[in-house]
Write a structure and sequence with these properties.
The radius of gyration is 24 Å and the shape is globular. The strands form two sheets. A five-stranded mixed sheet has the order 3-2-1-9-4, with helices on one face. It has a four-stranded mixed sheet with strand order 5-6-7-8, covered by helices on one side. Helices cover 25% and strands 29% of the residues. About 18% of the residues have low confidence. The N and C termini lie far apart (71 Å). The protein has 185 residues and is α+β, with helices and mostly antiparallel strands.
Amino acid sequence: MSRSSSGFVAGLTALAVAAVGFLAYQASANVPDELASPKKPGSSAAGSPAGKEKKKDAHAVPAASGAGQRVVYALAAKRVWLVGKAVGQKPRTFVVMPSTVSPPPGTYQVTSRSGEITGSDGVDIEHVVRFANVGQVAIGFSAAVDGTMAKPDPNLKTGGVRMAPADGDAMWTFAPIGSKVVVVP
């Protein structure tokens, strides 16, 4: 019995060592740059050009999007942020699939909403939050009921900015009629 017990203990020990190694790797991969390498005495990060530049967070709210509670839609980034009222609160952000017609950069308000309809492209959609019109095309956020975010047919003039269903749920809750929507390039 002692042989099988020692084999069992050796297996548990090997498993524990592997788990600690994995956790150590995860921790080292997530260390902020300023803590990653020790500073040499007498050197200053602020004194070097690289020290003055902070890494740009790809998920940070665009600086030119204003202040206060708002929905921010970055056209080039194909990303939306739901920015709350609380200072320091991390906004929810997610990728979207733009429509074939996009609104020009500017500030808008949510003008209408629909729980579930058929989109102009024939797709069943839910949580439609409309905020602009470009010509005869209504622009709004929505989620396909089937969860897809297919690239729109370039031959159709559509205004639906598609998102995943969970993001559509969050948008629906966050942006009632009258909510501010800021579109940035």
